[in-house]
Amino acid sequence: MSQPLRRRLVGPLQSRIGSRLVLEPIVERAYRRYLGTDRTSGLGYAAMRKLFGSARPQAFDALADRSTRERPRLDLGAASGVLAGEVADAAAALRRDGVVLLRSRLPEAECAALEAVAVAADCDVVARFRPGPDRARFDAGAPEAVRYDVPEAVLLQDEMVQTLLGDESVLAVAQEYLGGAPVHDLVAMWWTAPSTAESSAAAQQFHFDLDRLRFVKLFVYLTDVGPANGPHHYVKGSHRDLPRQLRADRRFTDAEVLGHYGADALVEITGPRGSMFLADTRGLHKGLNVVEGHRLVFQLECSTSLFGKPLDRPSVPVAAPALRAAIASHPGAYRRLLAEDPRR
Question: Is 2 exposed, middle or buried (0-12, 13-18, 19+ CB in 10 A)?
Fold first, then answer.
């Protein structure tokens, strides 16, 4: 289907009438089916994304609210871990701004362990500078592409990654912010190499994420990140206030975004190795292109629901005691990693 034809079809589909008669019934059926099967159809996911940008975004918001009631809240008490002591303040800052740079840093030993995984991994190559293989190890001295993604299957085998997955303080801040029981749905890590221009494929232009209905991400810088090293940029408040023209499912220029919010709304996240921040990336954000050095980022995501983008169900041999204990206490939060859904 050509781009002009697709645009002509999507417009009516996302109108108030199109939303009521087409998108909302498709999403409702897909969500009901998901509740019984723990699976989302490709059509249901596509319709969910279109609904977000429709003339009736309140229908999307109602479903997101509904997702917070899928499971009873977790009993976490005074959760220990890397975010201990910051749960309430971090959740409050997220509600206000959509992003918060945390006071705590990941200790050097943990940073080194994660970096060792990234150094040894055959990565998925994104936005190559010249033709070549789809997988390669990152070579800081001679990068072949803008971005190198460490496969999630590799990450999930690592004991340090599993330890962070089992961190109850991450679950606690996710639950406090999201308003419902969290479920882990994504682990990621990637290298970014220097480039002369922003790469859309490497997420270096403003956009929002929409794989799930409601979610929050923990980011960890595993290299020092200053203004020239590809810092994360986030538009404060855009997680709460996103006009329809900026809900289109595409990348946006700086002029489009700052023309609506103004430069004062832009937050640049910099910090030394080990710096951590939380973000609701349903708000507008991007990573700047790296000008000097390179950048390595680790990321965890928690959502209220696995409804959305069809996902893998990895088989994970649990080696880390922290993850083993967390699964025993909160199996629903880790159901993507389990052979059977604990609901059934």
Answer: exposed
